[in-house]
Amino acid sequence: MTTQLDDRADDRIDPDEVGPPAPGAVASWIVLITGVIGLVAAATLTIERFKLFADPGYRPSCSINPIISCGSVMTTDQAAFFGFPNPIIGIAAFSVAIVAGLLAVARVALPAWFWVGLTAGTGVGLVFIGYLITQSLYRIGALCPYCMVVWVVTPLLFVTAAQLAATALGRRSLIEAAGWLRPLLIIVYAVVVAMIAVRFWSYWSTLI
């Protein structure tokens, strides 16, 4: 028992070594900026979807060609997984991220549980996005530009929130583990880009 307590004590770091629970301007701004970008994309998608509800003949602004087409994606069952347009979830989620980012930029010391909760929430969102990516590529066969914006910002928000949570908890092991997420993030982006390139190569090759 004594050894376990000593190990836990050794794993904790002095808050002065890592700063307050909202450490560093860069991480704080990343949370804020990704939240704003995600909210704009989600809100735009929601507006476009309601325009399409009102007028089935409406051509969304992001329907550019047969492959890059929001209209082809928004009318599918996958685009309303819970019975209502998916972007509505994004509006709520990214609004929380914006509030967190504003507080972090203002150097307000948020409790560890808040960052853990944000990490968990964005983690669930990341899994959902993974599902939507595969559906978009292999079932629907079209890409939604605004959706892809969300694909980009959500993983970055998750990684940043995880690092903030690890720092707020003050566990050296968690901070070290969170440090591996950024290299993993680059790999994830590369894999998704490769999947898009391969899936629609027959179309991309006509543009070369």
UniProtKB/TrEMBL annotation:
<keyword id="KW-0676">Redox-active center</keyword>
<feature type="domain" description="Vitamin K epoxide reductase">
    <location>
        <begin position="24"/>
        <end position="165"/>
    </location>
</feature>
<keyword id="KW-0812">Transmembrane</keyword>
<feature type="transmembrane region" description="Helical">
    <location>
        <begin position="180"/>
        <end position="201"/>
    </location>
</feature>
<dbReference type="Pfam" id="PF07884">
    <property type="entry name" value="VKOR"/>
</dbReference>
<keyword id="KW-1015">Disulfide bond</keyword>
<dbReference type="InterPro" id="IPR041714">
    <property type="entry name" value="VKOR_Actinobacteria"/>
</dbReference>
<feature type="transmembrane region" description="Helical">
    <location>
        <begin position="112"/>
        <end position="134"/>
    </location>
</feature>
<comment type="similarity">
    <text>Belongs to the VKOR family.</text>
</comment>
<dbReference type="InterPro" id="IPR012932">
    <property type="entry name" value="VKOR"/>
</dbReference>
<keyword id="KW-1133">Transmembrane helix</keyword>
<feature type="transmembrane region" description="Helical">
    <location>
        <begin position="88"/>
        <end position="106"/>
    </location>
</feature>
<feature type="transmembrane region" description="Helical">
    <location>
        <begin position="26"/>
        <end position="47"/>
    </location>
</feature>
<dbReference type="InterPro" id="IPR038354">
    <property type="entry name" value="VKOR_sf"/>
</dbReference>
<keyword id="KW-0560">Oxidoreductase</keyword>
<keyword id="KW-0472">Membrane</keyword>
<feature type="compositionally biased region" description="Basic and acidic residues">
    <location>
        <begin position="1"/>
        <end position="12"/>
    </location>
</feature>
<keyword id="KW-0874">Quinone</keyword>
<feature type="transmembrane region" description="Helical">
    <location>
        <begin position="146"/>
        <end position="168"/>
    </location>
</feature>
<protein>
    <submittedName>
        <fullName>Membrane protein</fullName>
    </submittedName>
</protein>
<feature type="region of interest" description="Disordered">
    <location>
        <begin position="1"/>
        <end position="20"/>
    </location>
</feature>
